[in-house]
Amino acid sequence: MKILFILLFSFFIIIFSSCKKDDSNPTQPTNNAPSTPSNPIPIDGTTEVSRSPVLSWTCSDPDAGDSVKYDLYLASVNPPNTLTASSWIYPNYSLTGLDTNRTYYWRVTAKDSRGASSVGPIWRFTTTTQNIIYQDDFESYQLGSFPPGWVSNGVTTGITISNYAYHSSAQCLKISGVGGLSGVFRLIPTFPDTASMEFWIKSPSNLPGTDTSWCAFGIETYWQISFFAQDSSILLNDYYTPGFKFLGYFQPGNWYKMKVKYNKIDNKLSCWANDVLLINNTAILPYPSGLFRFAFGTSDSRKEFYIDDLIIW
């Protein structure tokens, strides 16, 4: 009987041990790699890119809580193997001092905080043949100040250096109306016969749908391209021709890369938004005598927008 009891006890011990959960090698959650970097700006194959462009791309991680960092490779040979930025935390990167009229190749590797990575495709762009006339990334100014070298139309309260929203690095130029029209301009003393202007603009998000106010940029007292509140349209007009020319629509609160190419000999103007051509060699009236002043402005105290990475060449 004693032997039978011992056998039964041993049997139950064996059964219990075989059913016990093994915690020595717990199941680890699957770590998914970040998405492949995509949607490059400049768009792959773009030409006449400034010598100080801002490269940007789209990427995300499917796992909640995973942070993503980026390695950027850039070179004038393909494939690009020169590491330009390592473990960069933003999906954009500002470049300066690129060669004139040269093709560059670039790619981005996305890495998450648990060691998984995704390698993006190789993209390319070609820089402009023109020399830079003026550029400003608004990083050298004191936060909250009116930027020295810029001139207001008399109201400076709503025009300040801000870190609330920016396209690259950490600062931009904020423009908001104060009691009506508010504007700022930069004098361009030597404006060539043909010039291109490129910058990033965060379109206004506080747009009442029933008013006709606007935010705009252009050559002061000559032509302007406006973001209209009422229907979220982008319109072109010069100061001497009645009416507006429709260019497209914008999404309030989004960043847009705007580029304008102007020929003051032929009086033709072309405009791109996010590298998409909106108008091509559209005729405008000849420029009157006077100085070229590149300007931004808003018509209403409720409007607020942001400018970053301006370059004129």
Characterization of this structure:
This protein is mainly beta and 313 residues long. The chain folds into 2 domains: 38-127, Sandwich (Immunoglobulin-like); 134-312, Exo-inulinase, domain 1 (Jelly Rolls, Sandwich), CATH 2.60.120.560. It has 1 helix and 24 strands. The chain has one helix at residues 2-19, and strands at 38-41, 46-49, 54-58, 68-75, 83-88, 92-94, 103-112, 117-119, 123-127, 134-136, 151-152, 159-162, 172-176, 182-188, 194-202, 214-219, 223-228, 233-238, 245-249, 255-263, 268-273, 276-283, 292-298, 304-312. A hairpin with a 7-residue loop joins strand 4 and strand 5. The chain is globular and about 70 Å long. It starts with a helix and ends with a strand.
Summary keywords:
single chain, 313 residues, mainly beta, Immunoglobulin-like, Jelly Rolls, 2 domains, eight-stranded antiparallel sheet, 1 helix, 24 strands, 6% helix, globular
Global outline: globular
Oligomer: single chain
Cα gyration radius (Å): 28 Å
The CATH topology of the largest domain corresponds to Jelly Rolls
Distinct helical segment count:
1
Describe the sheet with the most strands: 8 strands, antiparallel
Structural class call reads mainly beta
Short structural description:
With 313 residues, the chain is mainly beta. The protein contains 1 helix and 24 strands.
